[in-house]
Write a structure and sequence with these properties.
This protein has 32 helices and 27 strands. By secondary structure, it is an alpha/beta fold. It folds into six domains: 114 residues, MutS, DNA mismatch repair protein, domain I (3-Layer(aba) Sandwich); 134 residues, Nucleotidyltransferase, domain 5 (2-Layer Sandwich); 134 residues, MutS, DNA mismatch repair protein, Chain A, domain 3 (Orthogonal Bundle); 93 residues, Orthogonal Bundle (MutS, DNA mismatch repair protein, Chain A, domain 3); 243 residues, 3-Layer(aba) Sandwich (Rossmann fold); 42 residues. Helix 6 links the parallel strand 10 and strand 11. Helix 11 packs across helix 21, helix 15 runs antiparallel to helix 16 and helix 27 runs antiparallel to helix 28. The longest helix is centred in the middle third of the chain and has 33 residues. It starts with a helix and ends with a helix.
C-alpha cells in the first residue's frame, strides 16, 4: 500500500484526476477536456491516433515518467466522435464542470455522456434512413429473449423464441451493438458468432425480478400485461437490461421511451437469416450489388425510410392487414393530385421522430426547434387532405394525426424565423414576449445612437473637432483626442493612454453606460436561454403525440413510395388468397429489370404452384439461362405482396405464405473451416427441418458442391422428401443442371418439369430466358465456358471429350433404363402397416435417432436393414 501511495504522489494532479475518472469507465475510450482540447492518454491515445489519424506525442507525468498523448480541438468533437464510434469504440466524454477562470487549482471534471455504437443522439453518428439499434440478449435452456432499442427514436421492442428465430431477428434489424451477461459470452458466440459490437454486463442485471422492477418503475405500471409481454420472461429480462445499460452509460433522461412492444412471431413471415441474405432484401451480397430496398424505396422522410426497412424484413401474414395496405396504395395510386400534394408536405417534415427524442433529453437546439415547428405546420394540411380524401382507410390514418396546436402556436409566436444553432448566442426570442428583454435590447442596440450624442455634445462643449469615441477590451469605451487639441481637454476627463499622435481618456458617464450595455447583453443571453428552456419544456408535454404523428407520417410515406413505384415500374395489384395457390402471370425480377441496358426488355415468366397438382417445379437449363433469377423473382413477388406493395407482374394471386426458405448460390464459410458443400447441406437441413404447409421453398443447384453421383442422389432424395412429407406440402421451386432429375416427374404426381429455353445456332447458344414445360437434356456447359472467355484449346478439348463420351449410345440408353429402374419411394410411410413382413424393418427404423447417428453407423444400419429385406425374400 505504501508503494502505491508513493506512486500516486509522483503523478501530476491532472493525471491523478484523469486516472480516477478512467477507472470508472473500463473498456471506454476517455476524451478528457483540458482547456480548448479533448485529450486522450496512454493506450487510448494510441488507439485514437490510429482511428482519427492525429499526431501521437508524449507528455510529462511528473516523476512517473512520460505518457502517450493525442488530442484535438473541442469544437472538432462533432467530426471526430462518429469516427471513433463507427470503429466500434465506447467513448466517454469527460467535460469541465466549472469555469476554469473562477477556480484555483484543478478544475472539477466528470463524464457527461458515454456514447456507444448502439447509444447515440449525435446526427453525425446516426444514419438518416437507418435505425441505430442496441440489442440485448438473454438465454434460457432452449429459448432466447431479445430486445431492441433505438435511443434516437424511442422505439423499444422485445421478443422471445428459438436461437434460430433470434438469429433471424438480429440479421433483419442489424443492431450496432449487442449486450448480454458476461457469464453467457460463450453461449452468445456459439449461436451468433463474433459479427457484432458486443459488451458484457454483470449477471445480476439479467435476473427476471430486477428487470421486471426496472421496466415497471420506468413505465409507472404495476405489471407488464398492457404491453403484451408478461408471458415472455426472457424477453422481459433482455428489455430490463437495456434500461439498466442506459443508466450505466449516463443516459438518465429517456422519457421518450414510452412503450414496449412485442415482435409477434405469428404476425410476420418467417425469413431465416439465409433467406434475408440470399434474396438481398436490405444489403447486397456482392460489392456494387443492388438490394431490393433500393428499388422499392422512394420515401422522402427519414422515418419512412426506417419503417420501410422493417416492412421488408417483417412481411405480414394477416390477410386483412395486407389488404388494408394494398387498398391505401391503390387509393394513392389513382389520386395523382392527392398523392402529389401529400408528398409536397412530407418532404418538408424532416426527422420529427428524432427531433422529439432530443426534446425529451433536453438536447434540441434552436434550429432544430424551428424544424419541429415546420414539421407540425406541414402536418396540418396532410391531416386535412387525408380526412377529406373520401377513402375510409386514408381518413382513419388522418384522424390519428395530432395537430399539437398549442405547441405550434407557442414556437411560432416566441421563436425568431432565423436563429443560431446554440442558445447562448442571442437573437432567439421575438420582441414582445418578455418586457425586461425588450428593455435590455433597447439599451444594447440603441447604444450607438447614444454614443454619437455624447460625441457631438462633447465636441460642441470643448471645441475639439477631431474627437472620436471608440472601444477596446482593455479600457472599454474611451474618448480619443489628437495632440493638437489636448490643451482643450476638460480637467474631469481621466487620461488612460498616451499614443504618438493622440491621448485617450475616459469619463464617469462613459463608464456607467459601458457597464449598462455589457450587463444588458449578459442578461439578454440569460433571459433568452430561460425562455428557450421553457419552450423545450412545453414541447416535452407533446412527446407521445409527436411520436404518434411520426409513425403515421412514416406509414403514409411508405404507402406513397409503393404507389409511386407501382406507377413508374408498371406493377400490378396482387390478389391475396387464404388458399394455397401461387399464380404469377408475366412475373419479373424487380431488381434485374431496373438494371438492364436501355432498350432491353426483361423476359417475363409465369409461375404456377399449388398443393394439389403442381407442388414442385423442377427447372432445368444451362447456367446463365436465368434459373436463379426466376427463383428469386418468385420469392420477391410473394414478399412484396405480403409487405403491402404492388408487384412486378401483369397478374398475381398469392396464397399467403408463412415461411420463405432459400438455398441459393454458394456462400462459403471458409473462415470457420466449413466448405461450400457443408454450408449448403447445413442450410438445406435447416429448411427440411422447419417446413410448414404454407412454406415457399427455393432450391438452386443443390448438390453441386460434391461429385455428380452424390449430387444427383442428394437432390433426388430432397425432392422425394418434399413431395412425400407426411404433414406439409411445401410449394417448391427446384432449379438444377442435373437433367436426370426430370425422371422424378414420371413417378410423383405433384412434380412438374420445366426448362429455361435456349436456342442453338451453329456452335453458339442463345439464352431465351423463357420458361417452358418439359425437361432439358443438355447443360450447355461448354458453350458457357466459351462465352466466359475460356482459352480456345480448353473449349475444343472439352468438346472432344464430350463427343467421345456421347458416342456410346448403348451406354447412354442403359443409363436411361437405370434411371427408370430407380428404386421408387412414391408411397407414404403408412404402407409399412399393410405388409406384416415389414414390421421388423419398421421397428429398427423407429429406434433410430438420425440426429445423433454417425455416417459410418448409418451405413452399417443400412446394411443390417438390407439383410432383413433379403431374409424376407
Amino acid at each position: 500500500m505504501a508503494k502505491k501511495s508513493k506512486k500516486e504522489a509522483k503523478e501530476t494532479p491532472l493525471m491523478k484526476q484523469y486516472n480516477a475518472i478512467k477507472a470508472k469507465y473500463p473498456g471506454a475510450l476517455l476524451l478528457f477536456r483540458v482547456g480548448d482540447f479533448y485529450e486522450t492518454f496512454g493506450e487510448d491515445a494510441v488507439t485514437a491516433s490510429k482511428v482519427l489519424e492525429i499526431v501521437l506525442t508524449k507528455r510529462a507525468n511528473g516523476a512517473a515518467s512520460h505518457i502517450e498523448l493525442a488530442g484535438f480541438p473541442h469544437h472538432s468533437l462533432e467530426s471526430y466522435l462518429p469516427r471513433l464510434v463507427r470503429a466500434g469504440h465506447r467513448v466517454a466524454i469527460c467535460d469541465q464542470l466549472e469555469d476554469p477562470k473562477s477556480v484555483k487549482g484543478i478544475v472539477k471534471r466528470g463524464v457527461t455522456e458515454l456514447v456507444t455504437p448502439g447509444l447515440a443522439y449525435n446526427d453525425h453518428v446516426l444514419e438518416k434512413n437507418q435505425n441505430n439499434f442496441l440489442a440485448s440478449v438473454s438465454f434460457g435452456k432452449d429459448v432466447v429473449g431479445i430486445s431492441f432499442l433505438d435511443l434516437s427514436t424511442g422505439e423499444f421492442m422485445t421478443a422471445e423464441g428459438t436461437p434460430e428465430y433470434v438469429d433471424k431477428l438480429l440479421q433483419g434489424f442489424q443492431p450496432s451493438e449487442v449486450i448480454f451477461s458476461k457469464q453467457q459470452k460463450e453461449v452468445f458466440q456459439k449461436y451468433f458468432r463474433d459479427q457484432y459490437n458486443t459488451f458484457g454486463l454483470e449477471d445480476w442485471v439479467y435476473q427476471h425480478d430486477y428487470a421486471y422492477e426496472t421496466l415497471t418503475a420506468h413505465f409507472q405500471t404495476t405489471n407488464l400485461k398492457g404491453f403484451g409481454v408478461e408471458n415472455i420472461p426472457l424477453g422481459v429480462v433482455a428489455a430490463g437490461a437495456v434500461l439498466h445499460y442506459l443508466k450505466e452509460t449516463e443516459h438518465k433522461e429517456f422519457s421518450h421511451i414510452s412503450s414496449l412492444s412485442r415482435i409477434e412471431e405469428d404476425r410476420y413471415v418467417w425469413l431465416d437469416k439465409f433467406t434475408i441474405r440470399n434474396l438481398e432484401l436490405i444489403y447486397p451480397q456482392q460489392d456494387g450489388g443492388i438490394p431490393l430496398i433500393n428499388i422499392i424505396d422512394a420515401t422522402v422522410t427519414p422515418m419512412g425510410g426506417r419503417m420501410l426497412k422493417k416492412w421488408v424484413v417483417l412481411p405480414l401474414k394477416e390477410k386483412r392487414a395486407i389488404e388494408e395496405r394494398l387498398g391505401m396504395v391503390k387509393a394513392l395510386l389513382n389520386e395523382d393530385e392527392l398523392r402529389d400534394e401529400l408528398l409536397q408536405h412530407l418532404k418538408l417534415i424532416g426527422d420529427v421522430e428524432r427531433l422529439i427524442s432530443k426534446v425529451a433529453v433536453g438536447r434540441i437546439n434552436p434550429r432544430e426547434m424551428l424544424q419541429l415547428k415546420k414539421a407540425l405546420k406541414n402536418t396540418v394540411p396532410i391531416k386535412n387532405r387525408l380526412s377529406g380524401s373520401g377513402q375510409a382507410t386514408l381518413t382513419r390514418l388522418g384522424d390519428q394525426l395530432h395537430l399539437c396546436e398549442y405547441l405550434l402556436d407557442k414556437i411560432e409566436t416566441e421563436l425568431q424565423d432565423e436563429v443560431p444553432i446554440v442558445s447562448n448566442q442571442g437573437n432567439l426570442i421575438r420582441d414582445g414576449i418578455d418586457a425586461e428583454l425588450d428593455d435590455l435590447r433597447k439599451i444594447a442596440f440603441s447604444g450607438k445612437d447614444y454614443l454619437v450624442q455624447i460625441q457631438r455634445r462633447e465636441m460642441e462643449k470643448t471645441g475639439i473637432s477631431s474627437l472620436k469615441i471608440a472601444y477596446n477590451k482593455v479600457f472599454g469605451y474611451y474618448l480619443e483626442v489628437t495632440n493638437a487639441h489636448k490643451d482643450k481637454v476638460p480637467s474631469e476627463w481621466i487620461r488612460k493612454q498616451t499614443l504618438v499622435n493622440a491621448e485617450r481618456y475616459i469619463t464617469e458617464e462613459l463608464k456607467q453606460y459601458e457597464e449598462k450595455i455589457l450587463t444588458a447583453e449578459e442578461k439578454m443571453v440569460q433571459i433568452e436561454q430561460r425562455l428557450f428552456s421553457e419552450l423545450v419544456l412545453a414541447a416535452v408535454d407533446y412527446i407521445s403525440q409527436v411520436q404518434q404523428n411520426a409513425r403515421i407520417l412514416a406509414t403514409l410515406d411508405c404507402l406513397i413510395s409503393f404507389a409511386c413505384k407501382a406507377r413508374t415500374n408498371r406493377y400490378c395489384e396482387p390478389v391475396i388468397s387464404e388458399g394455397y395457390e401461387l399464380e404469377i402471370t408475366d412475373g419479373r425480377h424487380p431488381v434485374i429489370e431496373r438494371q438492364l441496358p436501355a432498350g432491353e426488355e426483361y423476359v417475363p415468366n409465369d409461375t404456377t404452384l399449388n398443393t394439389k397438382e403442381a407442388q414442385i417445379m423442377i427447372i432445368t437449363g444451362p447456367n446463365m439461362a436465368g434459373k436463379s433469377a426466376l427463383l428469386r423473382q418468385t420469392a420477391l413477388i410473394v414478399l412484396m405482396a405480403q409487405m403491402g406493395s404492388f408487384v412486378p407482374a401483369t397478374a398475381a394471386t398469392i396464397g399467403m405464405v408463412d415461411k420463405v426458405f432459400t438455398r441459393v448460390g454458394a456462400s462459403d464459410n471458409l473462415a470457420r473451416g466449413e466448405s461450400t458443400f457443408m454450408v449448403e447441406m447445413t442450410e438445406t437441413a435447416s429448411i427440411l427441418n422447419n417446413l410448414s404447409d404454407r412454406s415457399l421453398v427455393l432450391m438452386d443447384e443443390i448438390g453441386r458442391g460434391t461429385s455428380t453421383y452424390d449430387g444427383i442422389s442428394i437432390a433426388w432424395s430432397i425432392v422425394e422428401f418434399l413431395h412425400n412429407h407426411p404433414k406439409f406440402r411445401a410449394k417448391t421451386l427446384f432449379a438444377t443442371h442435373y437433367h436426370e432429375l426430370n425422371q422424378i416427374a414420371e413417378d410423383f404426381p405433384r412434380v412438374r418439369n420445366f426448362n429455361v429455353s435456349v436456342k442453338e445456332v451453329g456452335n453458339k447458344v442463345i439464352f431465351m430466358r423463357k420458361l417452358k414445360e418439359g425437361g432439358s437434356e443438355h447443360s450447355f456447359g461448354i458453350h458457357v465456358a466459351q462465352m466466359a472467355g475460356m482459352p480456345n484449346q480448353v473449349v475444343i478439348r472439352a468438346a472432344d471429350i464430350m463427343h467421345h463420351l456421347e458416342k456410346d449410345k448403348i451406354r447412354h440408353n442403359k443409363r436411361q433404363e437405370r434411371l427408370r429402374e430407380m428404386p421408387k419411394n412414391n408411397y407414404q410411410l403408412s404402407l409399412f402397416e399393410i405388409d406384416p413382413r415389414m414390421e421388423k424393418a419398421k421397428e429398427a427404423l423407429e429406434a433410430l435417432d438420425i440426429n445423433t447417428i454417425s455416417p459410418v453407423e448409418a451405413l452399417l444400419k443400412l446394411n443390417e436393414l438390407k439383410g432383413l429385406m433379403e431374409e424376407k425374400k
